[in-house]
Design goal:
- By secondary structure, the chain is an alpha/beta fold.
- 32% of the residues lie in helices and 17% in strands.
- It has ten helices and nine strands.
- Strands 1-4-3-2-5-6-7-8-9 form a nine-stranded mixed beta sheet, with helices on both faces.
- Helix 4 crosses helix 10.
- The N terminus is likely disordered.
Amino acid sequence: MYTEREASDGGAPNRQEPEFSEMDAERYARHLMLEQVGISGQKKLRCSKVLIVGAGGLGAPAALYLAAAGVGTIGIVDDDCVELSNLQRQILHTTEQVGKKKVDSAREMLGKLNPGVAVKTYPVRLTAGNIMELIREYDFILECVDNFPTKFLINDACVIAKKPFCHGGVLGFQGQLMTYVPGQGPCYRCIFEEIPEPGSIPSCQEVGILGVMAGIIGSLQGLEALKYLLDMGNLLTGRMLVFDGLPMKFREAVFGHASPQCKVCGKQAVIVDVQTRAADYE
């Protein structure tokens, strides 16, 4: 079992019939002006739950914008502590919070930004043994991690549980993201198939990353979550958005349909329970 810490300041809004106060009208005034949002959309956001796996470079901007947008419940999974080297890109945290658990630092920051949002924190390492329980109550998952085994674990678990999620990745001056919605386009494994061998692909620790790149991709992940929750616009299903910050160019890789040979979402799927394949995600 994982340990859950739930926000107390502000409390969780009423999920059945969320009230809309004068203060809410002022806080979300620019949202209410949008035809695609309005009061009904803002109430929908308050009733929504998003789980962010990783409170680092990608998860930080996503969490801030989702809290600012009024998403009612935000869950954050991360077992790391804040380090000084994180602060170049992980904008949820400050110098004073070095040494703290990232989930505690995140909860503190999000509470200051929007006390009406309930923040649930999970200071644990995500594993095949706890992921199904963790994702169960959430409407949308943001994959904001920096290692391939965990990326595949999140993909496989979300496909099995029929949970939509958005993948994000950054390295150097480049970043990418795509969204999976059950029954709509390929999953992450359809495209990349197998977990890369350790050391076969360089990491941020080896080649570095320009901090703002994480902000760009993480913010786009937050946008995908909001679009899904509000049922508006076109999600990145069946396509991957790739951004190169040096020439300042976006390009789109189109994949279309799910792969019939995919091991988790294909017609002959062999991955039907992540716990029985726990060793694959280590």
